[in-house]
Specification:
The chain has 213 residues and is of the alpha/beta class. Helices cover 49% and strands 14% of the residues. The chain has 10 helices and 6 strands, in the order E-H-E-H-E-H-E-H-E-H-E-H-H-H-H-H. A 6-stranded parallel sheet has the order 2-1-3-4-5-6, with helices on both faces. Helix 2 packs parallel to helix 3, helix 3 packs parallel to helix 4 and helix 8 packs across helix 9. The two termini are 31 Å apart.
């Protein structure tokens, strides 16, 4: 299946380099480029796209604002955030905006392709290096403890599977339960942890020692 990709970054040199790498990869075609959020929003009505690589720091509206507006126009888009930074504030804003993948700009091409495959399949992708950068800042902090009654054993099991990037259907198949049951457990996990999306759950699980990098 051909993945139609749009690149959004204010540095043309970076876009050219990423375009070259992607177009040498099977199943990928770059169908558009934009140097700002405003350019992307003007471009979207006229193209068919599946995945957007979105820079965070751009002139004009930033990556988080652009993500929100792009998804309002095209809810089917899968957005992968790009940044030179591993700052928690950037990461949190992109999560809230609806990004499904997170990569540092100096990621290896294997990471980039893994991110494309994951979000195209309806999952999420979190660069191991980015998570290591974020969670490394937590090592000097006191680790939070989860009360025994907060998450059940099954909920912890499902949370670990979520962190592995599995979809609800894949989790159901692996645990021999129905997708509806997984949906219910996942909703309960979100409510108990106060997380709003998968990306937040991954950071939560690492912070609380449920999974290790």
């Amino acid at each position: 299946m051909n993945r139609r990709i749009v690149l959004v970054d204010d540095h043309s040199l970076f876009r050219n380099g990423l375009r070259g790498l992607l177009e040498r990869s099977a199943g990928c075609s770059v169908v558009g480029e934009a140097g700002s959020g405003e350019e992307l929003l003007a471009l979207l009505p006229g193209i068919e796209a599946d995945i957007v690589f979105m820079d965070f720091a751009m002139p004009g509206i930033d990556g988080a604002q652009t993500t929100e507006r792009a998804l309002a126009l095209r809810p089917d888009l899968q957005i992968i955030a790009l940044s030179m930074f591993g700052e928690e504030s950037y990461y949190a804003r992109m999560m809230e905006a609806g990004a499904r993948g997170f990569l540092l700009k100096d990621s290896e091409i294997d990471d980039v392709i893994a991110a494309i495959d994951a979000v195209a399949a309806g999952g999420s992708y979190f660069s191991p290096r980015l998570l290591a950068t974020l969670t490394g800042r937590m090592r000097g902090r006191e680790r939070e403890e989860i009360p025994d009654e907060q998450l059940s054993a099954r909920e912890r099991e499902i949370l670990v599977a979520v962190c592995r990037g599995l979809s609800n259907q894949e989790i159901a198949d692996e645990l021999f339960i129905s997708k509806r049951t997984v949906d219910k457990h996942r909703a309960n996990i979100l409510e108990k942890t106060g997380c709003k999306n998968t990306a937040a759950l991954v950071v939560y699980a690492i912070r609380h020692g449920i999974v290790e990098l």
